[in-house]
Specification:
With about 300 residues, the chain is α+β, with helices and mostly antiparallel strands. It has one domain (about 20-285). The chain has helices spanning about 20-70, 95, 115-120, 130-140, 150, 270-275; strands at about 145-150, 155, 165, 180-185, 190, 195, 205, 225, 255-260, 265-270. The model has no long low-confidence stretch (mean pLDDT about 90).
Length: about 300
């Protein structure tokens, strides 16, 4: 009689190991996928930051327009007395509109790598933020949205006394608000190698401000007056901070800026389009070649 024997052990299984070639194929596939996906992720992140920047600029723009409602139609002046010191009574554009926006974060462009600490004290050209008032002043001073200095908030030194005389235009003075720059992407400074630092800047220079006949287009300016400026645009010196008059293309691989227009809308546009209608030269010494395309003037 044959007796069957039950074996409750599982049958042996063979072990399979990847060969070196198979491992290399897997690694190659992962590397290819990474090479495809990482740029996509980077582009998506940059696009999100641009959207956030447009939103921030829009809020600053609306705060500026709300300010005009409460201040006889005038935009804020850029500076009170030019001391850069809150303790000495100075203020700046972005501090003056502070009651009209909720958080200081909207003064920042997410593509600008400067930290809050960098903005509170970008360098020794402004006082150290030893008080909250000075910290707020410095933060507004280094906002990424530089106001159109020559045409929105000109700071003049009228002859013959040459005393500082800050001014600003009214909203109704602006002939083409949908085509007039109120504020634009800006930077504080650049290192010797050209790298940006310190955040943005409260104001920027226009690329030109005279017509083909040499007439000065800046509101309130009279021949012989002094004026506050940053040295104009400097296209022949690509590493200086004001190569574009303080304007800076934070977006789309350093090709686009965010522009806030005087009618309240905001959009991204190529840096090259900002100087349309202007013969750009060092020190903004060129002239307006096509007034219909020029985006900085507030009057026809």
């Amino acid at each position: 009689m044959t007796q069957s024997i039950y074996n409750n052990r599982r049958p042996a299984t063979s072990r399979y190991a990847f060969t070196l070639i198979e491992l290399l194929v897997v690694i190659a596939i992962i590397a290819i996928l990474a090479a495809i996906l990482f740029p996509v992720f980077a582009q998506a992140k940059a696009a999100a930051k641009k959207t956030a920047a447009i939103s921030n600029s829009k809020q600053v723009n609306l705060a500026s327009l709300e300010y005009t409602i409460d201040n006889d139609d005038h935009f804020p002046i850029l500076l009170y007395n030019g001391t850069f010191s809150a303790a000495l009574g100075d203020s700046n554009y972005h501090v003056l509109i502070r009651p009209y926006y909720k958080t200081e974060g909207i003064l920042m462009d997410p593509m600008d790598p400067a930290s809050i600490g960098n903005r509170d004290y970008p360098d020794s050209s402004v006082p150290a933020p030893t008080t909250e008032a000075q910290r707020e002043y410095n933060f507004g001073f280094t906002a990424d949205w530089g106001v159109n200095m020559q045409f929105i908030g000109p700071i003049l030194y009228p002859a013959p006394n040459y005393q500082m005389s800050p001014s600003s235009v009214t909203a109704t003075q602006i002939a083409r608000p949908a085509n007039s720059i109120l504020a634009i992407s800006a930077l504080w400074g650049r290192t010797a190698s050209g790298a940006p630092y310190g955040g943005g800047n409260y104001a920027v220079d226009a690329p030109c401000w005279t017509d083909a006949n040499g007439n000065d287009l800046r509101p309130g300016y009279a021949t012989g007056d002094g004026y506050w400026w940053f040295g104009g645009w400097m296209p022949s010196q690509p590493l200086v901070w004001n190569v574009f008059g303080g304007v800076w293309p934070w977006h789309s691989s350093s090709t686009q800026v965010i522009v806030a227009w005087a009618d309240g809308h905001t959009k991204a546009m190529p840096l090259t389009a900002v100087a349309a209608g202007c013969d750009v030269k060092d020190y903004s010494a060129g002239y307006v070649t096509d007034p219909s395309k020029f985006l900085w003037a507030t009057t026809e």
